[in-house]
Structure formats: C-alpha cells, structure tokens
Specification:
binds zinc ion; 7 helices; alpha/beta; disordered N terminus; disordered C terminus; single chain; 6-stranded mixed beta sheet
C-alpha cells in the first residue's frame, strides 16, 4: 500500500513594515545592552523640563514595559547608571560616523563615539531643527556591522515641547528613541512604537516592533532539542528579513525535514521489488 503524504503549509505573507536606522541592519553584537545617562548632562527646567531624578525615572519603565517584554527577542536592556563625563554632551552636534556632511558642518564639535546607549539632554538647535522635535538618536559608534554605541539626545532648547508631555508620553518618547538606539528605523504601521508621528499612542509595543527587534536580536534556539547540533539562529542575524526571522527559520527547518522524508520514501519505493 502506498503511503501518502499530505503536506499542508499555510503561509501568511505580510509586508515587512519595520525598517532599520542604517542601511545594513546593524544591531548591538551583545544581547545585554546598558542604557546610561551621560555623567555631566543637565536638563533645564525651561528646556526639557526634567530634573536628574525625573530623567532617571523615565528609563526603567521605557526598558521594562517595552523592549524587554518580547518573548522572541534575546535583547535585554538594563539601566547602567552614569557614564564618565562626555565633553560638551549638552551642546555638541550628534553625527553618524559616516555622515561627512554632518561632521564637516560642526568642525571639532561633534559628540565623541560612545559605548552602550547614552542618554543626555542637548540644546544645540541644529541637532533638532525646532522645539517640536522631542529627541534625536543616532548610533555613533560601529565596529564593522555592529553597533557599539548610540546617543539619545532629549531636546533641551528653550522651545522644547518635551516638558509639556505627560510622564507616560515622555516614557513613550524614550522607549521610541531606544528603538532607534538598538537599530530600528521608522515604520508606517500606526499601531507601532516606531511609527514616527503619534506620541500619545505609544503605550505598548506593536506587533511590527516585536518582529523588528526579534529580527535584530533573535532568540537562540539552543536547548530546543529539535535542532540538535544545528547552528543557532544567531548566525542568520545579518540575512535579509525574509531569511532571518524566527518563524522563517522554523518553517525552513520544517520544509527541509519534509523534503528529506519524501526523498527517503521515494528511494525506498524505488528499491522495493514490484509485482
Ligand atoms: Zn523616531
């Protein structure tokens, strides 16, 4: 009797909405990343409108209520306290290391490369353009295709509207900026934390954010048993999104097993004498 194999695969295809903050999908190499406050930063009452204690209190919730809550992401952020003093962190220009125009526009006055994620207040107008831009974030230190450090600047200009936000919205802003710091760009998905417009809706991560962070910081599959000695998903980290997600990995493995099984059955049926 012939054995029949029914293979049903349901593929849900959806467009990838999340983007990266650089053109090579960089992320921190280590999954444990610290979020720190620049040692000598100050946030003015008439600028960002934050005391040092208030700034500190925004970081914990921005980490724990959002980015640390994704079951398919290995990223674990933690508050790391204060950095050593960073020269003129409050007034210098923030540039990506590859942005020649930005660097040459502020000769000798760019913020030096940092390690981990560093938050500061900054009052330099050309970092923000206007008081309506709440904050800016740029990874300003890379090693090859890995992010080594990112700077988050909260708008501390006198016209900054950051001070007018509710505490919940300020936490949402910091969480959104941390999203940039870990490698994510903007999305056109309105339900996402990384949507670029609405601030007041950033109360939780959207599905799109979770897929983005899980792509950049995939859970290792070690210990699943299923894979035995196979490679971990980490080694697929830099593949394009279509090849790199957790679900695609599982699906690919499933297909491989099925193909292997079909080939095995075909071989067996060919080898069997026919009557
Ligand atoms: Zn943004």
């Amino acid at each position: 009797m012939k054995r029949m194999i029914f293979l049903f695969i349901f593929l849900s295809s959806h467009a990838l909405a999340y983007t990266f903050n650089n053109n090579f999908g960089a992320s921190f190499k280590d999954n444990d990343v610290k979020v720190m406050i620049a040692g000598n930063t100050y946030c003015d009452e008439l600028g960002a409108g934050l005391t040092q204690g208030e700034l500190e209190d925004l970081i914990g919730p921005a980490i724990d209520k959002f980015w640390n809550r994704v079951p398919t992401s290995a990223l674990r952020l933690s508050f790391g306290g204060y950095t050593e003093d960073i020269t003129s962190i409050n007034t210098r220009k923030l540039c990506a290391p590859t942005d020649e125009a930005c660097i040459s526009g502020a000769p000798g006055a760019t913020i030096a490369p940092v390690t981990e994620i560093v938050i500061a207040c900054n009052e330099r107008e050309d970092n923000f353009g206007s008081g309506n831009v709440l904050a800016v974030t740029i990874p300003n230190n890379f090693a090859g295709k890995d992010i080594v450090g990112s700077v988050i600047l909260i708008n501390n200009m006198a016209t900054s509207v950051f001070k007018n936000l509710s505490r919940a919205d300020q936490i949402g802003v910091i969480a959104h900026e941390i999203g940039h710091a870990i490698g994510l760009g903007h999305t056109d998905d309105k339900a996402a934390m990384m949507y670029y417009r609405t601030v007041d809706l950033r109360r939780a991560l959207g599905e799109d954010d979770m897929r983005g962070v899980s792509y950049l910081y995939p859970m290792k599959l070690d210990g699943f048993g299923l894979l035995g000695g196979c490679a971990t998903i980490d080694e697929n980290k830099k593949l394009p999104p279509s090849g790199g997600s957790f679900f695609t990995m599982i699906l690919s493995l499933f297909l491989l097993v099925m193909i292997w099984e079909i080939r095995r059955l075909l071989k067996r049926s060919q080898a069997r004498p026919t009557f």
